[in-house]
Amino acid sequence: MTNTKQDWSVPAAKPLDGEVLDESPSATDNVAAQFESDLQEERDSRREERFYWIFVLVIVANVPLFGSMPSAWAYLPTLLLELVLLIGLADWLGVDRVKVLLEKLYAK
């Protein structure tokens, strides 16, 4: 059986007539990089805000939940489970500051 696949070589970039290859970024590249950086900051801040809202909802949901529990001993497993879930959520949403604080609280 013979090999029918062709090997293609890509020539090095050569300037066209009158064109100069420049390795420095253009103004458009700089603006695009700035927009990308701004977009990433906006995404990070929205994820952090989403985590804070979920955290507040967990605290608010604990009030009627703990009020309906017959024993105070049921609080501890519930709180530990919530802490583990919140640490996972903080990690998934990329909120490192909160993840570190919750891990310190969980370690005590």
Q: What can you tell me about this protein's structure?
A:
With 108 residues, this protein is mostly helical. The protein has a domain at 47-107. Helices cover 68% and strands 0% of the residues. The chain contains three helices and no strands. It starts with 26 loop residues before the first helix and ends with a helix.
Tell me the layout of helices and strands:
Layout (H helix, E strand, L loop, with lengths): L26 H42 L6 H19 L2 H12 L1
Q: How many β strands by DSSP?
A: 0
CA-to-CA gap between the ends? 68 Å
Largest sheet: none
SSE class: mainly alpha
Percentage of β-strand residues? under 5%
Q: What is the rounded Rg?
A: 27 Å
Uncertain spans: none
- One letter per element, helices H and strands E, the order comes to HHH
Number of helices: 3
Mean pLDDT: 80
Q: Work out the helicity level.
A: 55-70%
| Overall geometric form | elongated
